Amino acid sequence: MSALGHWRLNLVLLLLSSLLVPADIIIPKPAGQYKTYLNTMELVDTSRKDPYATDGSNRAIMVSIFYPIDPQGCPKTSLVDYMPPKTAAFEDTDFGLPNGTFESMKLQTCTPDHRNAIHDPRYYPLVIFSPGLGSPRFLGNAIAQSIASTGYAVVSIDHPYDTNIVEFPDGRVIFGASIRNDSSNPEKAVATRVADARFVLDQLSDASVVRQLLPGARCAFNTEKAAAFGHSIGGATAVAALQFERRLLGAIDMDGALYSINSTTQRPVLLLGRGDHNRSTDTTWQDAWGRFEGWREELDIANSGHFTYSDAPLLLELGGLSLPPDLEPNVGKIEGHRALEIVTTYVEAFLGFVLRREEKKILEGPSDKYPEVRFYE
Ligand SMILES: *[C@@H]1O[C@H](CO)[C@@H](O)[C@H](O)[C@H]1NC(C)=O
Ligand SMILES: *[C@@H]1O[C@H](CO)[C@@H](O)[C@H](O)[C@H]1NC(C)=O
Ligand SMILES: *[C@@H]1O[C@H](CO)[C@@H](O)[C@H](O)[C@H]1NC(C)=O
Ligand SMILES: *[C@@H]1O[C@H](CO)[C@@H](O)[C@H](O)[C@H]1NC(C)=O
């Protein structure tokens, strides 16, 4: 065959393969000034039995870290899987999406080219993220990465038996089915999650753990300066944890009913609601409000749904996907990029105020730039 013939054949093969292989769904690079390193790790709490395991095993959790890297320490960005393969297949079915959808989703992260690119971990304030009941931590990846790109180390947690599937590095999985039966006991789920979050803080104050999570790190995090945010029952976890954990300096609850808020806190609390979720519709918010004795604010986003506070709107928009009709209302009516921008802008403002002593800025009151956001205080 002539050289031209070869070229034509290659072109045809290329076109065919691009038709057969589903295109990657690529999460845009985050907007902040830093690139982000991503790593995941299993952490085993040898001092605590898993309250849901039937075999008496110790509590084992999975975490992801999104860590800021100076752009000059990261000349090249790589595409990495949004979630591991078994989880991706499971979530396709759970969300009623075509096989291969979650597997095709990619994040753009940085593999530092030299060890010095990993800064002294004490430099970046620490932020813990806890996802909603049944949701994997990955559904907050774009939000976590976006926040990390503004200079925070963001660590997200999967809470086994509660997260619908947790996949460990050795390939074993824990399904969340049994806790759904336990959903009549959300206080137990919150208490377990609070213990998970506190255990993560303990681990991040251990230099040998931090070295595995951040190759090249020469010390541990300053866990005395941390904040927590979460979605749904993860938000309840963040706020409940303030009562027990002095290392957490503030908490954000994104659209979660609150549980076990039995004592007062002087530390800042931000409640973010979906369009029809506020203190007059949620007695748990009403009951807890008086116990927030420090700075407190309640906001909602007009036309948002419960999953506006997750990556779901962005993923659906990027993939040109839609959910089955019964799930559709949960994602709200706000376009994906816009949802991500609003949520991360308000979360970052809170973190800046709590962890960097910055001005409250956008948290002071309604903004022309974000007319969707309504203030209740
Ligand atoms: C999706 O993949 C799973 C496992 O890989 C398979 O069992 C199932 O039949 C597939 N479903 C569809 C609709 O292709
Ligand atoms: C959940 O409860 C139902 C009904 O009580 C039971 O049939 C099912 O086996 C339980 N599932 C798990 C995973 O425990
Ligand atoms: C908080 O109060 C609730 C309801 O009164 C109770 O069930 C729960 O055990 C309490 N939690 C803590 C941690 O004290
Ligand atoms: C709270 O939400 C409900 C339901 O959408 C709405 O009717 C009500 O006006 C809201 N409360 C306030 C104080 O705006």
UniProtKB/TrEMBL annotation:
Keywords: Hydrolase, Lipid degradation, Lipid metabolism, Signal. The keyword Lipid metabolism applies. The keyword Transferase does not apply. GO terms for molecular function: 1-alkyl-2-acetylglycerophosphocholine esterase activity. Residues 1-23 form the signal peptide. One of its GO terms (biological process) is lipid catabolic process. InterPro entries: AB_hydrolase_fold (IPR029058). Its EC number is 3.1.1.47. This is 1-alkyl-2-acetylglycerophosphocholine esterase.
